[in-house]
Amino acid sequence: RSSWLLLAPLLTPPVPVITAPPCSLCPEGAHRFQWIRNLVPEFGISSSHVKVLSSPAEFYELLKVQIKAAKQRVVMASLYLGTGLLEQELVYCLEETLEKSLQAKGSPGLRVSILLDYTRGSRGRKNSRTMLIPLLQRFPEQVRVSLFHTPNLRGLLRLLIPERFNETIGLQHIKVYLFDDNVILSGANLSDLYFTNRQDRYILLRDSPEIADFFTGLVDAIGDVSLQLQQDDTVQMMEGMVHPYQGDKMAYCEIANQRVMEVINSARTRQELLHAKTFHSSQPGSSLLSQQGSQASESLKPEPDTWIYPLIQMKPFGIQIDEMVTETLLTEAEQDARIYLTTGYFNLTQAYMDLILGTRAEYRILLASPEVNGFFGAKGVAGAIPAAYVYIEHQFYSEVCCLQQQERVQLQEYSRAGWTFHAKGLWLYLAGSDLPCLTLIGSPNFGYRSVHRDLEAQVAIVTENKALQQQLHQEQEQLYLCSGVVSTSTFEQPNRYVKLWVKLVTPLIKNFF
Asked: From CA 501, how far away is CA 54, in angstroms rounded?
């Protein structure tokens, strides 16, 4: 494999940059982030339903427990499903639960929907598809496997780019795992590394039917515009659906936009009506009867002190909600506020870099040292990717120093023997507060790919509850404990040497990783 292959993605048409409209924080009200509900549904829940997990092993065990306990639905969206023993055990759990569902009389039956990326899920002879075909063969009425194929990989480009490199054009990158009314949000994929020694983030939302319904609808919408895996390992589109790489690209993207936005807007309308109903029934002028009815229905449901906002980013379909919200959060963060931002792959968009360097809040940015980068030690050209990230990091650090912002903007590198680093997200501490009131968690890495190429989803979790704020603070501290502060001497170490060809190629290909 020669290095020219890295340049093949440059054949794809450039994506136009659209500036997000300005949006300002609401300084009053229940919390200052209610403006987000102008864009997406707002789900109010009790903080007692939120649990922050800390380790890959805990994540894996929870997946198995939740699969085994599921009665109505299992919905899993990931980049891919690995092919090792741990992944096979997950498939066995699904098989066992589906079998029990078939045998249970009078049961509505368990439905399993799995959404993966087509290119990553088809890589190699043994792959995600071959792992899941036995489920399709045994439970054809209950199992659906959808493989998203980016509309940007088509024609001559699709024929020329080899396996692995074709993944640079665009991916299904969303990671959501839900079981009945329990939802796990993470940046982790369904692969043995993410169950053992690749550090990520994971949050469980228990007994949250509205949130589970939303993400079920989202995965169904993407699934509807994806290739459907068949029992003989072939794929086909749903009847009447435009093909992602053989059909008209504009028509396909328009349909995909409509499907996804319908899920977002209908959920937003439902939540607004629910919010209005709750608000009016609690007013002094409301009738005694309606108050009693409301009290009866709410008696089992604690007053919400935590709000969940799903943030979707699908630039190929013209959906840029996550980008708009993230830019607004960075723009409006006040002086003396602290933002802890972490990414496994440090390659921020120019807009995000400009906001970090040009605003007033303090930043602590956690990124992977070369040794814990997921590409460290990879064969061929991919082995140079950690060096490319070092080069990007050095350039950003030099700009921070040039602007004399080292005190306000600090880089920290995660380092842990025998582990790799894949955590991404953000914690926001308001000025004068020792605890975060907001976190972002999900699939985006804050890089060009996340904003422009891939399908991404994360949630903003806003909470007034001190115990949950403490959980989020401990999560942040635990990750940052395994890090060292970046300084000029960091880039003088022998393992930070970047070859000239890497420096020359990185500006050309940085939009693809």
From this structure: 39
Going from the C-alpha of 249 to that of each of 242, 253, 256, 402, the distances in angstroms are: 9, 6, 11, 44
Active site residue 434: no
Q: Does one domain contain both 105 and 213?
A: yes
- Nearest 5°: the CA angle 237, 243, 248 is 160
Euclidean distance between CA atoms 59 and 90, whole angstroms: 12
Q: Are residues 382 and 481 in the same domain?
A: yes
CATH number at residue 359: 3.30.870.10
What confidence score (pLDDT) does residue 134 get?
Answer: 97
pTM of the entire predicted model = 0.91
pLDDT at 285: 54
Query: Domain limits at 92?
Result: 45-268
pLDDT of residue 31: 72
The pLDDT score that the predictor gives to residue 510 is 86
Give the chain's mean pLDDT: 90
How many independent structural domains does the chain possess?
2
The encoded tokens of residue 463 equal 């909470």
In this structure, are 315 and 233 located in the same domain? no
**251 within a domain of the structure (yes/no):** yes
Asked whether the beta carbons of 184 and 442 are under 8 A apart, the reply is: no
Our CA angle for 471, 476, 478, nearest 5°, is 95
Catalytic residue among 49, 175, 424, 452: 175
**Region at 362 (left for phi over 0; alpha for psi -120 to 50; beta for the rest):** beta
Total number of residues shown for the chain: 513
**Which one of the listed residues 49, 117, 149, 173 is annotated catalytic?**
173
* Sequence-ordered alpha helix ranges (H) in 104-241: 118-121, 128-138, 155-160, 192-196, 209-224
Quick one: 184 and 309 in the same domain? no
Is 422 annotated in the active site? no
Residue 284 pLDDT > 60, yes or no? no
Residue where a domain terminates, one of 248, 268, 288? 268
Question: Are residues 203 and 334 both part of a single domain?
Answer: no
Q: Give the mean model confidence (pLDDT) for residues 244-248.
A: 97
How far is the C-alpha of 264 from the C-alpha of 40, rounded, in Å? 6
Q: Which of 31, 180, 394, 510 is catalytic?
A: 180
Q: Is 175 a catalytic residue?
A: yes
Let me know whether 241 and 377 are in one domain: no
In a domain, 389, yes or no: yes
For the stretch 58-104, pLDDT in tens is 999 999 999 999 999 999 999 999 999 999 999 999 999 999 998 88
- Looking at residue 15, its pLDDT comes to 40
N-to-C CA span, the chain? 18
Q: Answer yes or no: is 34 within a domain.
A: no
What pLDDT does residue 511 have?
Answer: 85
Same domain, 331 and 232: no
* pLDDT tens, residue by residue, 426-452: 999 999 999 999 999 999 999 999 999
**Lowest model confidence (mean pLDDT) among 2-6, 360-364, 374-378, 438-442:** 2-6
| In-domain check, residue 292 | no
Cα gap 443→420, rounded to integer Å: 17
